[in-house]
């Protein structure tokens, strides 16, 4: 007996109660023919209920005996109806109560109908172990019903339809979706792995199978993520359509609860990932490789090359060049085999979101296959492929990383920007990319991997001081601020402040832990005795009092300083002036002003015509200068007098180019300026020139820097999010400024008045850098254990086993993954099935 069948019986008994009440009413009115007809209808209902029960439970149940007695009573009453009084009503209700109790106690639900609705055969692994548990359970009828899905056209309409029922594993019995009518079957439990419903720009399952439709016909709708994770989660997974309709959302671990919108917290089941169940099972007993693969794999190390949708969309041109580079590297290594497995939706994504690159991708694919560079894997079962491979190379933001991680196979994370072998000094690109902030203390430098370096003579010759984190990477800290005799290491992805005193860590100031995602803070700035942390994802501006240790959280005006444009999370520019912290809006002309000492907040409006938001805010001592996110209008505003002036008369050939995607735009033109006399010098962020602006007359002209300013990054080992910025003045008259050129990581002292410069050498001990290179190590909370591609550890180094830093350790990797995966012994599916049964009271 299934639960909904018991409910049907209970509803039928309720109908008999209602019929009995109607019999009583008609009997009182002496409508005897109507009473006789109603008694006959009740007899028919009793027969129907009895047959329904015997079809399900067989003969001999107590409930059917009671129904038979009730049927006899109805007959006897009908025969004598003209001679008896109304006491027979009480007798009928007594018998119905006995039937009702028998249905409740004898016919308890002991069967479940469970249906699984996968749409991509390659994603079946996210459901399989739960199906296995249900399929082996004698109390369950388990159905696997692959459902169709559509590609999206560029305009969002439905394109080609796909059905992958034929691609499911042979041992999985498949029911065609047209043969399973959920409205009739009304399964007790429905499992899905697509959370998007109509909100996916690449594909859509058949609308008949959107979560809100399924929920109408089942008591329990369970969403199991189609992905697994190495610790982090994409922002897009925080809230999806299916979460609103699902009764339960399976998460990989308890820690992941905080990644989701708090609205869904009570729905979370932190029981692990069925994907891990499957990969553990298959890797413990690997299959034989397909016949076409055997010769290519024989006697070689086999490398799984993953090309993900995230990598494709982040910068398609760079992504395609990276693919070609990987092909080239493998082509000169004879003892290895490259197995290329693109994401199953990659070509659909190209068609719908990057159609202009489809031909280039197709040529790469054809080149790979026709030149027999390796194995092109388009099989539906990724798990078997993982079992046959020795190591992973590819992006970090993909489920595949975690599948290799959980079974202890090496993970080498590629940097898609790198498409050539490094030159001797290319390590500088990563080591010197995050320093020289207008607010920071240059004596202290935090390099990639949260390693703290110090220049004891304040001459830009740095020596290693210590590791700031137990992780190898993670960008936990941004830069150092010195207040009094102490230096404060400010967080970026961390949620604490590290205090240095007498060149050693004296304490860590723990903040409230409010987010599990990277991106807690956008920056930090000091104002007298206070340090302010500017939030990105952290839900408050933090003020730390360096004298008494007090921490204050400002959380009421975050909507002013945060905003979104084209889906990108933006934080406005900030600076201090006259005892106030000012943070501009990234999308309007509002400004949040906080008086540092009192903590009093005010939301101000500049009155500027430019409402495109501020990406950098600088003070000249009297005025605040707003550099725009969009357009070229620069605003100068006096917060005391309210006086405002806007400058937009710039050279006609001023243009911007989006550094990440390469297209021309008018976004992020300028970075930190320099103020010298009547002039403001604007350094390019994404624009094509430096500008010299006369703040008095408003006239501007292109300023030619005296040094060679590169038009592009040297190569992929160098950061490319911005071109350059002025740091701070180096003389009392503000005639000379430090300027940092990010494209080639060079620091200059520039005499603005005389157009002269001096390059300031930034020096490290190369051997010391190599000695501190992590190699294979705990990476971060969001990427457990791996080695990252860089100038010290190239793809060729990895293939040749020549790693700088720690060599791979399988035991360490598996131990790291234990922390972010519940039931990582392969029992997740069993635990999910058991839990759902218990919630439905199936014993």
Automatic annotation (TrEMBL):
Q: Which domain of life is it from?
A: Bacteria
Report the SUPFAM superfamilies cross-referenced here: UDP-Glycosyltransferase/glycogen phosphorylase, YVTN repeat-like/Quinoprotein amine dehydrogenase
Which Gene3D superfamilies does this entry report, sorted A to Z?
3.40.50.12580, YVTN repeat-like/Quinoprotein amine dehydrogenase (2.130.10.10)
The identity of this protein, by name, is: CDP-Glycerol:Poly(Glycerophosphate) glycerophosphotransferase
Species source reads Paenibacillus oryzae
Classification lineage: Bacteria, Bacillati, Bacillota, Bacilli, Bacillales
């Amino acid at each position: 007996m299934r639960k909904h069948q018991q409910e049907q019986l209970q509803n039928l008994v309720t109908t008999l109660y209602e019929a009995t009440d109607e019999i009583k009413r008609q009997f009182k009115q002496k409508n005897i023919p109507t009473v006789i007809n109603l008694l006959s209808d009740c007899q028919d209902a009793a027969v129907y209920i009895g047959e329904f029960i015997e079809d399900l439970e067989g003969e001999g149940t107590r409930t059917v005996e009671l129904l038979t007695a009730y049927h006899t009573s109805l007959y006897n009453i009908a025969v004598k109806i003209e001679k008896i009084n109304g006491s027979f009503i009480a007798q009928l209700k007594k018998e119905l109560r006995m039937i009702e109790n028998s249905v409740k106690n004898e016919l308890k639900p002991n069967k479940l109908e469970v249906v699984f609705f996968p749409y991509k055969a390659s994603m079946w692994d996210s459901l399989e172990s739960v199906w296995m548990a249900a399929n082996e359970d004698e109390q369950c009828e388990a159905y696997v019903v692959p459902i169709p899905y559509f590609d999206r056209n560029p305009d969002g309409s439905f394109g080609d339809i796909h059905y992958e029922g034929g691609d499911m594993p042979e041992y999985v019995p498949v029911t065609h979706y047209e043969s399973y009518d959920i409205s009739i079957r009304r399964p007790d439990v429905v499992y899905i792995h697509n959370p998007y419903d109509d909100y996916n720009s690449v594909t859509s399952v058949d609308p008949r199978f959107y979560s809100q439709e399924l929920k109408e016909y089942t008591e329990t709708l369970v969403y199991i993520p189609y992905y697994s994770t190495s610790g982090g989660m994409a922002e897009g997974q925080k809230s999806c359509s299916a979460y609103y309709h699902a009764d339960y959302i399976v998460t990989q671990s308890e820690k992941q609860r905080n990644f989701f919108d708090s609205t869904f917290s009570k729905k979370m089941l932190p029981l692990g990932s069925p994907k891990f169940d499957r990969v553990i099972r298959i890797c413990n007993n690997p299959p034989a490789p397909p016949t076409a693969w055997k010769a290519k794999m024989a006697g070689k190390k086999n490398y799984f090359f993953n090309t993900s949708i995230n990598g494709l969309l982040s910068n398609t041109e760079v992504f395609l060049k990276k693919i070609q580079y990987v092909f080239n590297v493998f082509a000169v290594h004879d003892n290895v085999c490259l197995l290329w497995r693109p994401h199953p939706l990659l070509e659909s994504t190209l068609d719908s979101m990057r159609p202009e690159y489809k031909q280039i991708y197709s040529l790469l694919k054809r080149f790979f296959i026709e030149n027999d560079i390796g194995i092109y894997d388009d099989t539906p079962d990724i798990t078997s492929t993982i079992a046959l491979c020795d190591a992973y190379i590819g992006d970090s933001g993909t489920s595949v990383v975690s599948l290799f991680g959980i079974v202890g196979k090496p993970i080498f994370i590629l940097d898609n920007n790198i498409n050539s072998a490094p030159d001797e000094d290319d390590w500088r690109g990563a080591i010197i990319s995050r320093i020289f902030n207008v607010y920071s203390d240059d004596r202290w430098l935090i390099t990639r991997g949260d390693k703290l370096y110090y220049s004891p003579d304040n001459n830009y010759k740095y020596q290693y001081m210590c590791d700031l984190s137990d992780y190898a990477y993670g960008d936990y800290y941004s830069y150092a601020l010195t207040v009094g005799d102490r230096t404060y290491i400010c967080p970026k992805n961390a949620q604490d402040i590290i205090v240095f005193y007498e060149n050693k860590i004296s304490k860590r100031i723990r903040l409230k832990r409010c987010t599990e995602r990277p991106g807690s803070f956008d920056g930090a700035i000091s104002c007298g005795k206070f340090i302010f942390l500017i939030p990105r994802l952290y839900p408050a501006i933090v003020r730390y009092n360096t004298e008494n240790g007090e921490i204050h959280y400002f959380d009421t005006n975050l909507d002013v300083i945060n905003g979104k444009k084209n889906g990108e999370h933006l934080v406005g520019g900030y600076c201090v002036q006259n005892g106030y912290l000012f943070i501009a809006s990234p999308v309007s002309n509002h400004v949040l002003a906080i008086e540092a000492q009192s903590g009093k907040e005010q939301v101000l409006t500049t009155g500027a015509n430019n409402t495109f938001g501020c990406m950098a805010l600088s003070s000249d001592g009297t005025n605040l200068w707003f550099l725009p996110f969009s357009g070229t209008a620069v605003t100068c505003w006096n917060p005391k007098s309210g006086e405002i002036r806007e400058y937009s008369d710039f050279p006609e050939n001023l243009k911007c180019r989006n550094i990440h995607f390469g297209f021309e735009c008018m976004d992020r033109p300028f970075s930190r300026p320099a103020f010298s006399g009547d002039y403001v010098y604007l350094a390019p962020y994404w624009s094509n020139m430096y500008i010299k602006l006369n703040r008095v007359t408003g006239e501007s002209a292109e300023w030619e820097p005296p040094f060679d300013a590169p038009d592009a990054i040297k190569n992929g080992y160098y950061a490319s999010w911005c071109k350059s910025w002025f740091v701070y003045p180096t003389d009392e008259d503000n005639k000379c400024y430090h300027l940092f050129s990010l494209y080639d990581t060079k620091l200059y002292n520039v005499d603005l008045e005389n157009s002269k410069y001096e390059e300031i050498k930034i020096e490290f001990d190369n051997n010391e850098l190599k000695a501190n290179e992590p190699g294979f190590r705990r990476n971060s909370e969001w990427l457990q254990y791996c080695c990252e591609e860089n100038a010290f550890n190239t793809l060729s180094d990895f293939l040749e086993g020549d790693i700088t830093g720690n060599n791979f350790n399988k035991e360490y990797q598996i131990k790291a993954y234990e922390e972010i995966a519940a039931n990582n012994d392969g029992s997740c599916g069993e635990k999910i099935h058991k839990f759902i049964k218990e919630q439905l009271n199936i014993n």
